[in-house]
């Protein structure tokens, strides 16, 4: 699916919403009032979308919408992981890189979520960075963006500060960056930066977030996080030996989603997961086979309200969830 303009993105989002309404009404037998409440729209819109689907001959014995397979995966993810809303981007190559398709779907979502007066916390990584071309910017009053972790000096394109700044620029908002490395040399340095250099005040803004945009990092290979020099190959192997399956904002977690007891976690300059969980809207944007275990853990610990991923990752997550239940 190639998205070339805000108009096309809006059309895709409209089609997605119509397919979800049809699915909930005709397959899961929800009432129109229940659908309106679940999707955050009014009942009149539900009626119109159902009528539009019938006009387009999308309602027969089965749903003929081209997005119906994705809707089924989305509903399965929502049920399996307790997510309020799942968005699955079509992606047929099990060995390919789904970053761009996830970013395109997330960009459409983000464009519709941002409102005046919001405080938005942002993470970092390739997937989040690639959402930028797909976000329809606007001028929003009293709009603030808070970077949720320190900087990565050697990873210029995917630097947390760079993403937070560009994201704030899209909406003509204020950007609040963390002028410190993501990982420092000791817990003492971390304490000094937080308490004596004013960084704690920035992280306290995380208590006032309306939305957090997050991704996860895998640990099975030398990905961007480890090539920066902040974490060596020895650190990576030590974290794996301690049970780490990946990280959220450099908070390294085990397969149950618990922050592991490891000295690296005591040196990280980032918002902790307890604060993140208090954010009303937590949007997890990630996918790919190398992140499967990290995603399973993150879905448990972050408990995202919205999860954006790709078709292949969705199937793998559901398969893993089924194996856990049996």
Structure description:
Residues 66-319 form the Sugar-binding domain. The protein starts with 5 loop residues before the first helix and ends with a helix. Helix 2 packs across helix 3. The strands form 2 sheets. Strands 1-10-9-5-2-3-4 form a 7-stranded parallel sheet. A 3-stranded antiparallel sheet has the order 6-7-8, with helices on one face. It has 14 helices and 10 strands. It has 2 domains: 6-66, Arc Repressor Mutant, subunit A, CATH 1.10.10; 75-325, Rossmann fold, CATH 3.40.50.1360. It is α/β, with parallel strands linked by helices and 326 residues long.
Task: Give the SSE map.
Layout: H1 6-27, H2 32-39, H3 43-55, H4 68-81, E1 85-89, H5 99-113, E2 119-122, H6 126-129, E3 144-147, H7 160-170, E4 174-176, H8 187-196, H9 199-204, E5 211-214, E6 217-218, H10 224-227, H11 233-241, E7 246-248, E8 251-253, H12 273-277, E9 281-285, H13 292-301, E10 306-310, H14 311-325
Parallel strand pairs: 1-10, 2-3, 2-5, 3-4, 5-9, 9-10
Antiparallel strand pairs: 6-7, 7-8
